[in-house]
Amino acid sequence: MAAEFDSLEKCLAKHLPAADLKTVNQILYGRELRSLSLPEDATSLASERDLEVQGYGIDAHQEELRAARVVRVGAIQNKIVLPTSASVDEQRTALHKRIGQMVEIAAMCGVNVLCLQEAWPMPFAFCTREKHPWCEFAEDALIGPTTKLCQEWAKKYNMVIISPILERDEVHGDTMWNTAVIISNSGQVMGKSRKNHIPRVGDFNESTYYMEGDTGHKVFETQFGRIAVNICYGRHHPQNWMMYGVNGAELVFNPSATVGTLSEPMWGIEARNAAIANSYFTCAINRVGTEHFPNEFSSGDGKPAHKDFGHFYGSTYVAAPDASRTPGLSRTRDGLLVTELDLNLCRQMKDGWGFRMTQRLNLYAESLTEAIKPDYKPPIVKE
Ligand SMILES: NC(=O)NCCC(=O)O
């Protein structure tokens, strides 16, 4: 089998002359970002642990009345550690250990707010359509083992942690949800944000496992800014992004699990467009690697049954409201992206481009109220 393509940015850097590369990068990625120098002990520990680390700074103008609001944001992408045939407990414990090593490095890099990938303590088994044993990965959002561990890390490292899990809500009929748990840097659970839109595409057969989220568009006011979480498939819905902005988010995470053949051309566009349209920062995180499952499953497309989901292409990145963005992490390796950003850029972009001021929400509120009525007739004008 051919080796997976590692990174678009590395490919451009390898093949373009330096002057062309500068212009191409400017056109593709906006203004040149500051490269963030990270502590030597962190980078050498990262290479010992086979972890790619990249660091960037996204600056804003110095304002006269407001001090800069500089925050270090960390994003982790990773492969599963053990084969999916190992026991549920062994698989989850191995992931806890591996991510713990990465969180330690994030702390050494001064990260204040850290987000993990979608359903990080488990393989992305929804493709199988089997319930056993995969439903056993679901855990309580408040007192489950993964939340408890993240609380320890959050407190130890003074770091806000966003931990996306498959949630089991025992109080409400053992219902499952796809949930991001937001843990304050004090170690307290601030709350949870459940995935609003569930994919029904390709092998993403997730609607048979968990329900459409009922937590709306919560924004969490942390010590390091107002953050929100738009889980994976929710990034295809501009209204979903928009509501987090309407509710005051300055930084929206998009923890994901998605594969190349399905979504890669959309990946660099959606979270970035959301950052521009809503005058906030976004951070899109995708898992890496190919996960193989014990039993064959078919994709309902006439092709032969198979045991893997395809390649999760990583490429985690941060996008800014001024249309600049960081390069992506590798398509193949575990990685930590550290981005130092000044949240003041959000208001500066609102002032500069006026996208929020010119948004005309009332126009759309009225139009949509009409459009969802059963007797609605779209105003199509014919010749
Ligand atoms: N996990 C998930 O929602 N994946 C759906 C595929 C995609 O949105 O790219």
Automatic annotation (TrEMBL):
<feature type="domain" description="CN hydrolase">
    <location>
        <begin position="71"/>
        <end position="343"/>
    </location>
</feature>
<dbReference type="Pfam" id="PF00795">
    <property type="entry name" value="CN_hydrolase"/>
</dbReference>
<keyword id="KW-0378">Hydrolase</keyword>
<dbReference type="InterPro" id="IPR036526">
    <property type="entry name" value="C-N_Hydrolase_sf"/>
</dbReference>
<dbReference type="InterPro" id="IPR003010">
    <property type="entry name" value="C-N_Hydrolase"/>
</dbReference>
<protein>
    <submittedName>
        <fullName>Beta-ureidopropionase-like</fullName>
    </submittedName>
</protein>
<dbReference type="InterPro" id="IPR050345">
    <property type="entry name" value="Aliph_Amidase/BUP"/>
</dbReference>
